[in-house]
Amino acid sequence: MKFCSECAHPVALAIPEGDNRPRYVCTHCDAIHYQNPKLVVGSIPVWEGDGELKVLLCKRAIEPRYGYWTLPAGFMENAETTAEAAVRETEEEAGAHIELGQLFTLLNVAHVHQVHLFYLARLRDLEFAPGIESLEVQLFSEREIPWDELAFPTIRTTLELFFADRVKMREGGSYGFHSHDIVRPMRMAGAPG
Ligand SMILES: [Zn+2]
């Protein structure tokens, strides 16, 4: 940031008294502008039609990762709960109506200052359609999932954990809750590194 959102004067990086790390501090009104991680919240919308379980994915119509597939997810808004954010993002990006289940993954993406949360979800019906941030919305079985065209490491991790838990469920287990740290970006087609 360059300018104070309170008075529009320039800000400078400084360690405020009693603090231990640099913050943007206004050179005029002394306002301290703290920057903290953002929450990205989404769902894993599932349809179990004719015996085969399928997951709803959205093809991104926006950067970053235009044209790559993602679970419906987005930045949490003020004054909403994480569950409300998951339902809202699923409606906005996939036009899908879900019944929300348990929180499934909590993924720290510390290097981009984000925490990603994904909830299990069941599609109420098959009436979905791409929102303005999606090119397409489509149901995929496990073998149909475009693993090489997934938008973000948190999407891949969440889907891998989801299908791993499905295997456990066939052996009498149930869905778990999974907390992971995404330490560095995956190697993916179209992504540096
Ligand atoms: Zn100021």
TrEMBL record:
<protein>
    <submittedName>
        <fullName>NUDIX hydrolase</fullName>
    </submittedName>
</protein>
<dbReference type="InterPro" id="IPR029401">
    <property type="entry name" value="Nudix_N"/>
</dbReference>
<dbReference type="InterPro" id="IPR020084">
    <property type="entry name" value="NUDIX_hydrolase_CS"/>
</dbReference>
<feature type="domain" description="Nudix hydrolase">
    <location>
        <begin position="36"/>
        <end position="163"/>
    </location>
</feature>
<dbReference type="Pfam" id="PF00293">
    <property type="entry name" value="NUDIX"/>
</dbReference>
<dbReference type="Pfam" id="PF14803">
    <property type="entry name" value="Zn_ribbon_Nudix"/>
</dbReference>
<dbReference type="InterPro" id="IPR000086">
    <property type="entry name" value="NUDIX_hydrolase_dom"/>
</dbReference>
<dbReference type="InterPro" id="IPR015797">
    <property type="entry name" value="NUDIX_hydrolase-like_dom_sf"/>
</dbReference>
<keyword id="KW-0378">Hydrolase</keyword>
<dbReference type="GO" id="GO:0016787">
    <property type="term" value="F:hydrolase activity"/>
</dbReference>
